[in-house]
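User: Can you help me understand a structure? I only have the sequence.
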Amino acid sequence: TITSQVSANTEAGFSIVTYTGDGANGTVGHGLGVTPNIVLTKRRNSTSNWSFNGNIGGLIYGTNKLSLNDTAAIGADTNEVLAANSNNFTAGTSGSVGASGGTYVAYCFAEVAGFSKFGSYTGTETTNNPTIDCGFEPAFVMIKCKSEAMNWAIFDNKRDTINPNEAILYPNLNLAETNSSSTGINFLSNGFQINSNLGGWINTSGANFIYMAFANQF
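Assistant: Let's start by predicting it. Here is the structure, written out as tokens:
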């Protein structure tokens, strides 16, 4: 019901969508041909949160959300991206995704075997650090605790080329890159392992985390 401008790479499971909100739970075409696992939306003509909606690791469209620009745990929200299917997503009336006259960009991601993997893990804070099987060697991993208020963290194999990878960028902060000997990950041929010297915050015991991992190429 909302006209969208779409640039989509269906092979990579990624599209960039721009649109103008209608304030009426309008549907927005995304061009992927499959249901996106994540829709990351930002208002362009006014201040707003980065709205992180999806169907991975406890995220449910129309039920809850995360915000890329803050530390908050997953929170109830029934007014942002309300639903998604293989053709479109539904932009609620929230100012972050669908206010009347608001201009938006949405980055839509669908998991592609051998290239991208989205999911969750539970921290252990023991010597048995979590190992996540992606089915490929990641080049980029982004992690966020969904059960507690913690920073987002980005690791990649270009800024730090050896294990453990300890060069962290924080999407929710304006900090410079940090290097921590107590928090990092190991890039593996088939995924990644949390390497956090037992107590690092990306391995907090009993906490639940979501991740996005991408390979060098598809």
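Now, to help you interpret it: The mean pLDDT is 95. The chain is about 0% helix and 40% strand. Let me know which part you'd like to focus on.
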